[in-house]
Amino acid sequence: VTTDGKPKIIDIIDTTGSGDVNTATVVEPKDGEIVGLSGRMLKVPVSWTNPSGRYHIGIKNGYDFYPKALKERIQKERKEKIWDPVHRVALAEACRKQEEFDVASNCPSQANKLIKEELQSQVELLNSFEKKYSDPGPVYDCLVWHDGETWRACIDSNEAGDLSKSTVLRNYKEAQEYGSFGTAEMLNYSVNIYDDGNLLSIVTSGGAHGTHVASIAAGHFPEEPERNGVAPGAQVLSIKIGDTRLSTMETGTGLIRAMIEVINQKCDLVNYSYGEATHWPNSGRICEVISEAVWKHNIIYVSSAGNNGPCLSTVGCPGGTTSSVIGVGAYVSPDMMVAEYSLREKLPANQYTWSSRGPSADGALGVSISAPGGAIASVPNWTLRGTQLMNGTSMSSPNACGGIALVLSGLKANNVNYTVHSVRRALENTAVKADNIEVFAQGHGIIQVDKAYDYLVQNTSFANKLGFTVTVGNNRGIYLRDPVQVAAPSDHGVGIEPVFPENTENSEKISLQLHLALTSNSSWVQCPSHLELMNQCRHINIRVDPRGLREGLHYTEVCGYDIASPNAGPLFRVPITAVIAAKVSESSHYDLAFTDVHFKPGQIRRHFIDVPEGATWSEVTVCSCSSEVSAKFVLHAVQLVKQQAYRSHEFYKFCSLPEKGTLTEAFPVLGGKTIEFCIARWWASLSDVNIDYTVSFHGIACTSQLNIHASEGINRFDVQSSLKYEDLAPCITLKSWVQTLRPLSAKTKPLGSRDVLPNNRQLYEMILTYNFHQPKSGEVTPSCPLLCELLYESEFDSQLWIIFDQNKRQMGSGDAYPHQYSLKLEKGDYTIRLQIRHEQISDLERLKDLPFIVSHRLSNTLSLDIHENHSLALLGKKKSSNLTLPPKYNQPFFVTSLPDDKIPKGAGPGCYLVGSLTLSKTELGKKAGQSAAKRQGKFKKDVIPVHYYLIPPPTKTKNGSKDKEKDSEKEKDLKEEFTEALRDLKIQWMTKLDSSDIYNELKETYPNYLPLYVARLHQLDAEKERMKRLNEIVEAANAVISHIDQTSLAVYIAMKTDHRPDAATIKNDMDKQKSTLVDALCRKGCALADHLLHTEDEDGAISSDIGGREEEGESSLDSLTETFWETTKWTDLFDNKVLTFAYKHALVNKMYGRGLKFATKLVEEKPTKENWKNCIQLMKLLGWTHCASFTENWLPIMYPPDYCVF
Question: Does residue 490 or residue 959 have the better pLDDT?
């Protein structure tokens, strides 16, 4: 509850879809029971009210929505408690039996051989089950029904079928009801029911982060007030936007649905402790919807600025890049250091080293205000702890948000009107600037709740309720960073336009007349002194003259004050940033050296360097001068490129520098652009330290991407050493092959009630379906090139792909950042379903043929041969080795095509191989040229990528013997040909007709024609009434066997080499004969085994003691045994064709270990539900119930009723 007794959490909603269960299957109970989709029998309590008598049922695997840390804990506990104790006993027992048999048996007979094999199989299987152990997790049956008044849901959380022991819930909003999954899990959940009962959403936390954040902002503990959050009286609408399927990554679907809920539930404030780097700020569908909520519905949106500092321009989206959002940086006070982090001494207040810095790429300040960025606060029960220390701008944002809630609470209590604009202005104009923290880190300063409240009470003028849009062309500030921008003075047209709160009266818009004074406190910026502003965009000219500014970073603002109330602070600000970069020259060998530099804890030194033209990588060496202090440092470098996120050209390394220690790092750079190299002492690294460090530049220039087409044979690329002598050792490594796919179908439809924006703007989805074949087990990375790497900035609401196997089992999923969602797949056929969402159906229709790619990682990388001249490449002679290139020298290289036998299986025209070209011989140069995962782990990039495009494979010559066959065919006369064709046609039709007439007729005419007997055998073995015709199958098999000359076949197989001219034809014929013989033996064996198993079942049912039946059984058993040993003469029992017979033979002999071995092999070859059930039956017969129950739990996961919902 809140401090005034209202429910603390008014609703809990999962907007991602990760907890959704398809409950469209409707059933009615029989005798008070329902068969759940798991196969379990569910008992419906008589106390339930359901006037219609109909129940919607669904199924959900617990691990699909358990938080990752909980899933790992439960998997460990289940193995230790449920599996290990029973499995150890079973394995010990099997080993003991095997040992006893080995000691007792001393006569090698056929029977003993099989018993030994049986006992050996049991031990092998148990060991293999231990190795392959995989926990399917809990599988929950879900029921939804209408009780006449409202929808209710019940989840069989005990997996026992007794629903009277499970919790019945309504939508959380109706009565704040929730349940819990077991005492081991301690995972609380609530539900929401949509689409007239056809969709159930199970809502659980995706991690501990959201609970911690909510606790900081609004936690309330009446019994322990010291644990309260900042605003304990605030109510909370809890919205999950991190998709559990994507390791709790935020999605466009989650965010846009969340904003719809925020608007519909009339929230005052949003806290958003999430964000990503964005390629272009302040745009994209998600940002549009956020801005609509802020500007049109007066909802204040507070967000984390990001944890990607200390370099400049590392603010995340939306916190630091969206005009409508208040971005919060993370500050750490001396008291926090002692109380939360247990530091030995108090250090001065500081910004955390990792807190993201502005300005945003378009010149806006980026960080609005700062707040404490660490807290010990509540976390969910499933973590098995009550509180936890976490830090990040994720923590500073709710701290500020809670503070703003206090301000709003006071304003509402005293009937003071406010707008999002007036509140933001109050926060920024009253924040306290910390002396030693730069503006890009702290923004306007540390939030002051009391002063912000007083400001709003005192400044109630109409002007203060307005917002102002500041535009400099397409930018929101002036940001001069590259050398060409600061070489001379520049003029900038700045547009200033008032933004009125929604529903402002037209008369107020007409009467707006502001007299504004413009000021700048820097001599290098000139601006007008006055501006008259009315309801239109007015332009002013600002001149920036950076000449004469010292090297480094400079920031100022042009502020606009209302002359009527100058003490209220600026109404708007125009942020201006200028960077004067250091130059490196040939005379200094393109090095910059800094000696004996003093660092206090948390101190940051920034170096802006004009990277020399032609430079491709930089090397940084850091040496400690202090003999008593080991220190933690962050090395961070960023280059900004238009319309590319900062992470595209970012290097980050957190490192410990021991006493008198040295470390060297290398990273790629772009020539001709300013780089910021930042060396920062970690904020909590105690004691002062002195260090030397050097930044040096190297350059081996080449094309930015190498595209090789296999048809060209030889490809040339040129390399130049740009700056110094460089050692070359060019090497092309291909790491994966890429398969391009086109959709088989594209279906568009309107989404449900959760997906309607204000003013009834319906959102639509398009689902595209792709199929592909995985030629062998390996790692794949699916992605949609047109849309990937875009999230907040995307013009589409969202994208989400899910990959399924042939049985519709979900194998994995992914969205905007493909490198995060690689997965391992076994050989087989797969389906990818891609969902794209948008408000305009016409924009979706444009994507109906959208290409999709699947990148297959090569198990062994491939290399292309590189030569120093064309002749050597053409003749495939001496390959290029090492060479040294003097400055400004050029060297061509020639690459030859990949041999055809090296092309990966499954790859062909339309596919291409992907890899990288490294040029430097030195280890550091190589390191800088290889893909480096950024600290977010989302972006991997080769400095020089290589694409190798494939062509059709060479045509293989047909076997020579075929031509001879054609010649002999010509010699046959037409009459003979007709007779044979008629015979074959009759055989073909014989298998389709029920009667035996054609067979008998053909048998008389062609008594020795083997294919006739084979066709008859296959016909009988495939009949529906097969069990009634087992004896006929045995006879038919015997007929086939008798028509094969086994002696000559055995003689042929024993031959080592065959020198006859028609050896190939003979081999072909003999292989066919052997295959036919094995097939007939197996079919015969299966029929005999089925007969015995069937008789056994009947004997079990009717215990009639008939001697005749026993004799018949014995003769069948003898015949089966004979057939079995005969088969082993010709082939291996694990041959695919023999597996079924081997399995049935073991079953008849009650050798369940051998049977299970064959059954598991059958499952590998053909993973059908039926084959799995056979394995389960054998596990039970062996007494291995633990194996059986785990495998049974896998079935509903492996064979779901339909594709899972998006």
Answer: 490
The answer, yes or no, to whether residue 352 has pLDDT greater than 70, is yes
The helix or strand, by DSSP H or E, that contains position 415, with its residue range, turns out to be none
Q: Say whether 43 sits in a helix, a strand or coil.
A: strand
Under a CB-based contact definition with an 8 Å cutoff, are residues 189 and 18 in contact? Answer: no
- Asked if 721 contacts 889 with a C-beta cutoff of 8 angstroms, the reply is yes
Listed in order, strand segments (DSSP E) in 68-205 are 139-146, 151-155, 168-169, 179-181, 187-194, 199-203
What is the dihedral sign for C-alpha 779, 785, 790, 794? negative
Q: Can you list the positions of beta strands (E) in 314-433?
A: 325-332, 350-351, 369-372, 374-378, 387-391
Q: 147 versus 106: which is more confidently predicted?
A: 147
CA distance 992 to 608: 83
* Contact assessment for residue 950 and residue 912, using Cβ atoms and an 8 Å cutoff: yes
Q: Are 1140 and 1086 in contact (CB under 8 A)?
A: yes
Summarize pLDDT for 1032-1046 with one digit per residue, the tens: 888 888 887 888 888
Q: Give percent of the chain above pLDDT 90.
A: 77
pLDDT at residue 941 is higher than 70: no
**What average pLDDT does range 76-105 have in this prediction?**
92
Is this structure's pTM higher than 0.85? yes
Model pLDDT for residues 864-883, shown as the tens digit of each residue: 999 999 999 999 999 998 99
Please state the rounded mean pLDDT for residues 1080-1093.
Answer: 86
On whether the CB atoms of residues 774 and 826 are closer than 8 A, the answer is yes
End-to-end alpha carbon distance in the chain = 34
**Residue labelled with tokens 């500020």:** 400
Residue 228 CB-density burial (10 A; 0-12 exposed, 13-18 middle, 19+ buried): middle
Q: Are 412 and 390 in contact (CB under 8 A)?
A: no
The answer to whether 1091 and 1116 are in contact (CB under 8 A) is: yes
**DSSP state letters, 224-247:** -GGG--S-TT--EEEEE-EEGGGT
Cα separation of 508 and 469, whole Å? 18
Burial of residue 616, with CB atoms counted within 10 A of its CB: 0-12 exposed, 13-18 middle, 19 or more buried = buried
Helix axes 961-971, 1063-1101, angle to 10 degrees: 90
Q: Can you give the pLDDT at residue 415?
A: 96
**256 pLDDT tier (thresholds 50, 70, 90):** very high
Interatomic CA distance for residues 675 and 687, integer angstroms: 29
Number of H helices, E strands in the chain: 30, 59
